[in-house]
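Notebook entry, structure prediction.
Reason for the run: the old model in the group folder had no record of what sequence produced it. Starting over properly, with the input documented here first.
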Amino acid sequence: MKLKKRQKKPALPSTVTELDTEDGSKVYVVGTAHFSDSSKKDVVKTIQEVQPDVVVVELCQYRVSMLKMDEKTLLKEAKEINLEKLQQAIKQNGVMSGLMQMLLLKVSAHITEQLGMAPGGEFREAFKEASKVPFCKFHLGDRPIPVTFKRAIAALSFWQKVKLGWGLCFLSDPISKDDVEKCKQKDLLEQMMAEMIGEFPDLHRTIVSERDIYLTYMLKQAAKQIELPRASENEPRRYIPAVVVGVVGMGHVPGIEKNWNSDLKIQEIMSVPPPSTSSKIFKFVLKATVFGLLGYGCYRIGHRTVQFVLSMPAAQSYLQRLTEVPQH
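New structure, fully documented this time:
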């Protein structure tokens, strides 16, 4: 039934890139803007047209919760960045990576507030549509976010971390829906990436280029041939090419195309380097600052409390009695 519904020459959106494997499997990569209504429609149309065997999305196990949350809840979550979320991020990823994650969440919250739209709508649509296709599997194709953040932090120098954090903290430029839709244009995206490479080349390598490799690897794994059911053990095994739909940010599409015919190894990009000297210094300074402020706060509160207690008549009378004891 699925093969009958599958279009031989599917009418696909312009944001779809078609890739082939050596054994004849087809992969349709939908390049999206993460805050775009039209990207949702592109994902739905592509899945309906090709009736895939596997759908792969640019998410990892740490972000899978957004698939089952409704837009209203996600919108509220994206706007509310509090101390509890910061503590959770630091506990999960470490001090530096946790702070970086919260800064990026702040950027996401800024876009959410400007557009009134929760991120990841195209992934939720992919999840819904995949459940409607018979025997379609749903895969998470992105590298775990703690690995990405830890490698990104380790790649930056101390001053680069300060500069990046400062820029993210004071992000306030207005963003329109037209700006988001422009992110689906490859030429504009390549220009933005070029600007980013010039300022933080190591950050681009860890957050974009390495994830391009990981996403490509996961798409190729999903595109392995499918074994058909056998009536008996004596019947020979038969395989057919797979059809896969990948849903990724448009910024990853050029990298996926570039790496498609390469023999990929992901062990190196999955390793987490030990903390650098600058990270240790920053962590020490941050902890010293926090404890210093707490200590000073306690001192100020305690000092004022003691002064207040000593100014009370009862306390002064009691102290006077104590001074009179040695005389008696």
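Summary: The first helix runs from residue 2 to 5.
The old model has been moved to the deprecated folder.
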